[in-house]
Amino acid sequence: MADSNQVDQNDNSVPETKVLAIASHVVYGYVGNTMATFCMQALGVDVSAINTVNFSNHTGYKQWKGEKTSPEMISQLYEGLSQSTLVDFDVLLSGYIPSADALKVVVKIARELKLKRETMNPGAFFWVLDPVMGDQGRLYVSEEMVKGYKKAVSGGMEGPDLVVPNGFELELISGVHLAGGDTDQDGGELERCPTGDNYEASLEKVREAMEVLHQRDSVRMVVVTSVRIKGKQQEGVLCVVGSEKKSDGSSRCFTVEVPVLDCYFSGTGDMFAGLMVARLREECSKAGTLRNRGWASDDQVASTDLPLAKATVKVLSSMSTILEKTMDAKNKEMDKYDHTNRRASVEPQDAEKRRQEEVDERMLFLAQTKAAEVRAVRNARDLIYPKVRYEAKNL
């Protein structure tokens, strides 16, 4: 008898889908377009990619070669597609953008695509925005980029239909501090610590931030990834929280709890976004909402029954399985990494010893980073036929 939690292997119901993916690219490893494009193609999605950077490897190695794509080149590449009438895209997925000027070009492309597709086929076009700005309280883009993303998100009907930030990015674009609200014995609010490694968010603050995007910016759908919720970190879980707004602008929130893995991975945000494109389109097709503006569900649909919730569960099930397999493979690989791979220390010269120790540490770091590259290709079957491991709960 088949496992009821196993997605039917004959159920490949992702409708024909053409995606324009605008994000970073690396020669080695799986981040940016390299990750997102593979995940979408594994699920039968036709992807065209504009690479915003071309690097030898991702920045997690702390060293790389390559260059950023200029705003002019991004514009020219899109113009070439447009001139040849090759812009019949159903979805735009935008990820890492290297500069504020480049972001302006991407926003312009998104709005042109929306206008063209809405004119020909109302409700047909969907923009997924991953506002890549930073994590754990640390920005790795300029303040101008933060302003640019806030403006992009506030685009109303011309803005993104789904935004997929991490907790720190949700704070930046909404202006709501997720860990706020703590009070002292006299009822006064305590000083807010910057969101970082050790913060714990309030689910009510997460809901508040989502409602800001729904009501202030008219963003229809939001999914925030990897949020540390008060009281949950001790249980070894992170929360993924999603919401689709109702017609009155109020939120419909759900949560999915996933285990914390003791390993640092690169590219998981890109993996989530790429898988979400395919799985959300699949679930909206089943629900008959693809022709609705912004793939909107009726107000009476419960949060846990939303196509967004069902897609999120499938995405996280695939990701958890693959990341666990990656962590196991990393541990085995590092077990083989012995001292013969590093220079032996030389006792007589302290300076030489320190230099060799630094080389040892650097080589160990590079080996660990390489071993933690997500095994997406090797485990592609888990992308296509995930065993459903989680459930969405109403918030």
Automatic annotation (TrEMBL):
Family note: Belongs to the pyridoxine kinase family.
Q: Which SUPFAM superfamilies match?
A: Ribokinase-like
Query: What is the protein name for this chain?
Result: pyridoxal kinase
According to the UniProt entry, its GO molecular function terms are: pyridoxal kinase activity
Q: Which organism is it from?
A: Lithohypha guttulata
Q: Where is this region: Disordered?
A: 330-357
- Give its E.C. classification number: 2.7.1.35
Q: Which InterPro entries match?
A: PyrdxlKinase (IPR004625), Ribokinase-like (IPR029056)
